[in-house]
Amino acid sequence: MAVDRVEKRLRRVTAALDAAEIRYAVVGGNAVPAWVARVDPSATRATSDVDLLVQHSDLEAITQAMNNLGFERQVLGGFVLFTDPEEPSRRSGVCLA
Asked: To which H or E segment does residue 97 belong?
């Protein structure tokens, strides 16, 4: 069930970024299984957050797209994190790199 929530979050966010014509790459725990599963399907693991690689110049447009989904922007150290209103934990947020 937790994996379904993460996948739903990933799909909602990427659909919003696609609609806003914002370029991104899915990285981290959501991207790794696609590659690891080719070698050893049993080695894949679940993750609770969504990690996206984006261009810094798109930050305001990304913030607008995420706000439209109800996500709240936070700056933690050098990272920008958006918390999901459906699951407002930092551990299950969308982190930009």
From this structure: none
Within a domain: 96: no
97 in a structural domain: no
What's the pLDDT at 36? Answer: 66
Provide mean pLDDT across the span 1-24: 90
Amino acid (1-letter code) at residue 86: E
Q: Is 25 exposed, middle or buried (0-12, 13-18, 19+ CB in 10 A)?
A: exposed
**Distance between CA 97 and CA 93 in Å, rounded?**
13
Q: Is residue 62 part of a domain?
A: yes
CA-to-CA separations, 43 to 20, 30, 36, in angstroms, rounded: 35, 13, 7
Residue 21, both tokens: 């014509």
As a whole number, mean pLDDT of residues 16-36 equals 85
Mean pLDDT score of the chain: 87
